[in-house]
Request: fold
Amino acid sequence: MSLRKKQNVKKSSPQSVPSTDQKKGSNIPDDSRTRLWELFNMIEKEFDNIHAENTALKEKVDSLSDRLDLITSERTSNLEMTHPPYPHTPSTGTGNTPNLLPPLELPAHHSSTPLRIIRTSGTNITKKLLPKKSASYVKPLTPECSHVFTYYGHRDGVWDVSCAKNGLAILGSASADNTACIWDINNGTVLLKYIGHTGSVNSISFHPSDLLVCTASGDGSAHVWKYSMNIMERHRIRQDSSGDDKPVMSDEEGMDGGSHDNVTIKVPLLSLNEHTGPVMSCDWVCDGEHLVTASWDHSALLWDAQTGTVVHSLDGHDEELTHVCTHPTQKLLVTSSQDTTFRLWDFRAPLIHSVNVFQGHSKGVSSAAFSLKDNVISASDDHTVKIWDLHNMRYPVASIRQDCGVNRISVSHDHHVLAVPLDNRHIKLYDLGGNRLANLPHRNRKEHLRMVHSVCWSHDKHMTTSPGKCNLFSAGFDSRIIGWKVQY
Reply:
């Protein structure tokens, strides 16, 4: 009997014969069962081969796309050099001086006149509509991008990240863990933690010159609070005494919060509570005397930063606001909304303000930002980023299509480069003509593991040339903040 069992085992391979438990309750003959297992193995191998082929094809398509972008940009630059300068953008002699011409060539709405909506087309805009540049135009060099440091300390996703505008090497972050943090950019330690909000902190913005910070929260409020230079001095003393130039933290230590030796602030200088819904975004006006907040209650509010009173209520959006951004040197601001529009508000006239509505996207607008080259850039859930000329916003000068939703974008005022954070964990860099410059490295698990929600460029020009220092920062739902070095 035992000999017969051994012979039966030798007739079939171990891979093709199921276990005794698998045979129980089954009426499938052994031969059919073996054949089914063979077919399943063949199907699995075929799927593996198809996956490998698709991966190779995707890499080939990416390589060809990069080559096509390079060829197109070279041909475009050669063509543009044969045309006269763009008549709407006069030369000012400096690369960072705004070229805004008062008044803007836009049909504006004033508080006493009916609102006019500008319906923009441009879903099929190509590079042929790019503005003509002068013969002195030089195609930007492809930057070298590298990971520098990962900042750990938040216990939930990070909604927003912002750099100080007063020259200090500090970074601010807003997180779903109800806290906002100020970091030392150079070594990644938390200098200060703000815990005054009772809901998710959705946005953070530094005052243009003073030691003030504004944060917006899902608890329906925006808080203005102050940090001190003492936190920087204390940190330098601790750093000198320890002898460490840069703390080394493992991923486990980082996720546990990193260094706990930091200052905590709970009470704000001002609590702005006029919104009736979660406050999604905030920003300071360039004069530093006012700030603006955007909320899910379909409105944005302009505040007096000294008294905490509402100066203007910016109404008109039909759905929730997602973002607000101010111009770095002019009293202009742009609000973005889920109603597929973004609105340009002009407060340069002392007694009256104007607003223009732009319908250039098919889904909600997630963010918009200004450049110092008279551009507004809008990003949307319709997988597009569009670059507009402030002098003629009926058509975008460039339309950039992505594979997924786009979040809070940022423009470098030093190099005029656009950073685009995406839902698929990638970050891409473009010039203001819509040409792709680079993709940030995405390997070795040093990149974001979940959606990238916000990016920001450093405002310190000296940091962009310092070896090993970060000049671009990104924040994602993996609770990480990553510092990148983008070098030309």
